[in-house]
């Protein structure tokens, strides 16, 4: 999953980036509203963390622009602890949730996970397909109750496909959502990761839809 952080305070921005990358997210950052608006409008993200008190263009204006442009990416706004008016204004402008500063990293990550799950139609923190389970809270993957060790990129790819279970996901979409902006994106690596996941979880866990991409579905419903 790929996340954009729009925050002008360097220490907090770097802390958030390190925390989210440690939790398995691909992360891009912007330090002002103008840059943040551009990146949110032109890049594909699964969620955006947006500070409201930004230079150049304030966070509420950025959020309002995204929504008017038809961007439906889940947005988590950062507000001052006692500013109830900012919370109301952010939600009215189209934010999906908020966290008040200062906050615990665990709370922010939990809220971010929930936003991403809801956006893809998943209510539970555990993503399931047949006997395969991925716990988004712990980052653990099991098959028939037995733990399966995945690399960071294998986990990101499996997580994205499970979040979009039953849908055909193109190779381009996978690249956009599991790598950050600065990563050397090679589409051939996607097939390598898919092959590795099949070896660990079973040859039929991911179906290749020739010319379109990949699909992960319940075993009884899989087309191949």
TrEMBL record:
At what positions is 4-aspartylphosphate found? 51
Q: Which UniProt keywords apply?
A: DNA-binding, Phosphoprotein, Transcription, Transcription regulation, Two-component regulatory system
DNA-binding region(s), residue ranges: 124-218
* Endpoints of the signal sequence: none
Q: Which SMART domains match?
A: REC (SM00448), Trans_reg_C (SM00862)
Q: Which residues form the Response regulatory domain?
A: 2-116
Q: Which residues form the OmpR/PhoB-type domain?
A: 124-218
Molecular function (GO) terms for this protein are: phosphorelay response regulator activity; transcription cis-regulatory region binding
**GO BP terms:** regulation of DNA-templated transcription
What Pfam families has UniProt attached to this entry?
Answer: Response_reg, Trans_reg_C
Q: What GO CC annotations are associated with the protein? A: cytosol; protein-DNA complex
Name recorded for this polypeptide? Response regulator transcription factor
Give the organism's phylogenetic lineage: Bacteria, Pseudomonadati, Pseudomonadota, Alphaproteobacteria, Sphingomonadales
């Amino acid at each position: 999953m790929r996340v954009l952080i729009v925050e002008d305070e360097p220490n907090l921005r770097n802390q958030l980036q390190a925390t989210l990358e440690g939790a398995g997210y691909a992360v891009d950052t912007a330090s002002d509203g103008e840059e943040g608006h551009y990146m949110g409008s032109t890049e594909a993200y699964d969620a955006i963390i947006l500070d409201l008190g930004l230079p150049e263009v304030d966070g509420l204006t950025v959020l309002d622009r995204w929504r008017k442009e038809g961007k439906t990416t889940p947005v988590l706004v950062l507000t001052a602890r006692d500013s109830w008016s900012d919370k109301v204004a952010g939600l009215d402008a189209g934010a999906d949730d908020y966290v008040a500063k200062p906050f615990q990293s665990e709370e922010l990550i939990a809220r971010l996970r929930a936003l991403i799950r809801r956006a893809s139609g998943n209510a539970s923190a555990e993503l399931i397909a047949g006997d395969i389970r991925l716990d988004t809270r712990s980052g653990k993957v099991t098959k028939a109750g037995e733990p399966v060790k995945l690399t960071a990129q294998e986990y990101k790819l499996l997580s994205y496909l499970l979040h979009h279970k039953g849908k055909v996901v193109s190779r381009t979409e996978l690249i956009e959502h599991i790598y950050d902006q600065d990563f050397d994106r090679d589409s051939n690596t996607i097939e390598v990761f898919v092959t590795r996941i099949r070896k660990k979880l079973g040859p039929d866990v991911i179906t290749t839809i020739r010319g379109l991409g990949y699909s992960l579905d319940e075993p009884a419903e899989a087309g191949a």
